[in-house]
Amino acid sequence: MDSNEIIIKDIPAFFRKFKGSTKDGQYDLYCQEFAYSIIYGNLNSSHVDEILQLVGLSCVPDRLLLIQTDYNDVFQFYPEFNQFPRRFNITQILQRCVKRSGIEGLVASYTGRGVIGVFLCTGQESSSEEKEVTEKIRELASEMIVRVNEEIGEGVAIGISRYCSSLSRFPQAYAEGKEGLFHCFRLGKNHMVFYKDIKEPKTVFSRDELKNFGSEIVSGITAGEQNAVKEQVGRMMQYMLSVAMSPTNIRLILVSFTDSLRERFCGSRIPIDTLEKAYLNTSKQIINSMFADDIEKAMEQFCSKLIKELGAEAQSSEELLLHKIDEVIEKYYPNSEFNLDVMATLFHYSSYHFGRLFKNMRGESFRQYLAKYRIERAKEFLAKGGKPNEVAFQTGFNSISYFCTVFKSLTGISPKQYQENFIK
């Protein structure tokens, strides 16, 4: 046995300052143990020299690259059988790239996190060397992207931390790498982002703005306007990216929006099983997608599916919408609080967009139409002998005087005169 060989029986206890509840045992995943310990600030400093020897490094790393590919499936049970050979292949490709670059380093997969860490020993000693080191890392990252593309066929994103002057900097370096991956999510596949180059967007998030995009998409689907819907989906995605919304929040918002579209068109001429299947498939694609472009494409395909299934040739989408509007008005008109805002919310529109859509279809405002609808119902109740003061509240008016004012403006006579004329 080599006298310099290190024999470790309990790797977690050797690597970590705080062992926690980890059981004793033999481990051969030195690099992975190193990767986890260092980003949690839990690397045992009293064993640093021995640890570096175990992972094949001559010095402490000073850079961290986080690498993510577009292979992921959170719907599969963990551990996923075919994930580990695939992840292992990617890790091997990255290791070969590091070796060819001439930069000392190690590669470790963060199992369960969907990323791979590459720790580099660039040898940088001062800020004057930053430009030269950055160029070397850029060349290495470019090589990694090309090799993974060619050998595995997956898109790649790389987030690159700033220089780490000590072990204590690596928890922050991991956060910087994740921030770099977020910006790659926005840029698309096969990009690298240095944390030092990131500039935060200045656009302020507005929930109303997001709601307006959703309203335009619903309107476009209803009207069967494929190109308009595609444009609005793109604008909606770009808006969320412009306000630095996290990938997780973007996914959650779009899954929720997809669900609202499913509810909106439930009861239309789209078969319920077709609608449910399209919704589930789209939700899965959104959650699993590692890049914004893929999420946008999934949304476009879902909207296109809705437009196709609605089928303008048998019954126009406008007719379907008008029919559903009439059903809702009939149900809610007796409620005095029922108005344009309530109606727009029920149909997942902003008040402005629903009001505009309604006027285009009916030729008058929703407020005017609702007033006429209530008065027509009031005529029916009055003809049956209903008392004007009771009829007013039955038809959604919150005061008798206002009821009489609206009734006379639309009929030319008061409710009492109408009832007397009808009885005669």
Care to describe what's here?
This protein has 424 residues and is an alpha+beta fold. Helix content is 59%, strand content 7%. The chain contains 18 helices and five strands. The chain has helices at residues 11-15, 30-39, 48-54, 83-101, 130-151, 170-187, 207-223, 226-242, 247-265, 272-288, 292-310, 317-332, 340-346, 351-362, 366-383, 388-394, 400-411, 415-423, and strands spanning 63-69, 104-110, 115-121, 156-160, 191-194. The protein starts with 10 loop residues before the first helix and ends with a helix.
Helix content: 55-70%
Q: In what order do the strands lie side by side in the largest sheet?
A: 2-3-1-4-5
Report how far the terminal alpha carbons are from each other. Answer: 118 Å
Order of helix and strand elements from N to C terminus: HHHEHEEHEHEHHHHHHHHHHHH
How would you classify the helix and strand content by structural class? alpha+beta
Measured on Cα atoms, how large is the radius of gyration?
A: 32 Å
Strand residue percentage: 5-15%
Based on CA inertia axes, which overall geometry fits? Answer: elongated
- What's the number of helices? 18
Low-confidence stretches: 19-28, 74-82
Tell me about the largest β-sheet: 5 strands, mixed
DSSP strand tally: 5
Average predicted confidence as pLDDT = 84
